[in-house]
Amino acid sequence: MSATDPLGPEAVRAADPDGTLAEILDLAEHLRDALWRVQSANLAPRATPGGIQVVAVDGLELGAQRAREALIPRLGAPLAVFDRVPDRPAAPAAVLLASYDGEDAAVLGAFAATAATAATAAGSAEGADLIARRVVLGTGGALAAAARAHGVPVIPVPGGFPRPGLASAYALVACLELARLGGLVPVSAAEIEDGAAHVARLARAWGPDSGRDTPAKRIARAELAMPATPAGRRDRLGDLSVVEAGETPLQRAVTRILLDHLVDLYHRVLSAGS
User: ∠ CA(121), CA(123), CA(129), 5° rounding?
Assistant: First the structure.
């Protein structure tokens, strides 16, 4: 273990046998791969004036939350994130159902419930389908099987992540693409590539072989004295997050994903060394 930096490379390697750090530092490639996978799903444009409803678990909700932050300055409709059956939309909306392994009961229940909502709305006197489209995101499992059986598009997420939440970039990009296809925000592939290039630079600057005073290391050390509640950590993380001058909303969103994951890893390292 490093004698000068408890979050140096040797300490991190000792506390990270599953390779979490490598996936965190590869966030830029996750964003690029996610864009390719979403585009390969060949989703057609479809107006969704009711916005986007995301039902996500396994840490994928982080990507949806960060997408909402990135889009808020330009988003004229809600992007709501749920861990259960979503609220009935007031206008035609897109529904993204995300579960890493595709086996979460809450997301499977939401898939069934949104199918019923769509069928009921389609047969109503108004004739308006309040679920304009459903899309599934995950590695497979019962959720993907149900989607294919009902003709619902599936955006495949690669397996092998040591922790499901490390795939949050895929949920973020899926939300951005649904916003574009729904006529809500014209997010371009160039913007996502710009975000990837931005976070690649930060990953090089903030990894364990960087100095002791990087933002992620500062936040992790500061949180050691705090109650270890997820809500408290997230609030504190928001307070301490470093926003670089001139960052675009999308750059800021991917910066925060990088910080979230690095801080969580550094918590493990500091706990192992205490």
Answer: 35
Q: At what angle do helices 168-181 and 249-273 cross, to 10 degrees?
A: 170
pTM of this structure: 0.90
Nearest to 166 by CA among 39, 34, 15, 55: 34
Asked whether residue 2 is domain-assigned, the answer is no
**pLDDT of residue 248 exceeding 60:** yes
Domain contains 1: no
Give the single-character DSSP code of 242. Answer: P
Boundaries of domain holding 229: 9-26+193-273
Question: 60 is written with which tokens?
Answer: 């994928």
Helices then strands, each counted (H, E), the chain: 11, 5
SS3 94: strand
CA–CA dist 189, 74 (Å, integer): 16
Q: What is the rounded CA–CA span in Å between residue 113 and residue 24?
A: 34
CA distance 122 to 117: 8
pLDDT for residue 271? 86
Number of domains in the chain: 2
Q: Report d(CA 1, CA 39) in Å as an integer.
A: 44
Give the end of a domain, one of 159, 186, 213.
186
The Cα 210–Cα 206 span in angstroms is: 6
| Per-residue pLDDT reduced to its tens digit, 125-162 | 343 468 899 999 999 999 999 999 999 999 999 999 99
Residues 6 or more apart whose Cβ sits within 8 Å of residue 103 = 141, 142, 143
Residues 77 and 184: beta-carbon distance below 8 Å: yes
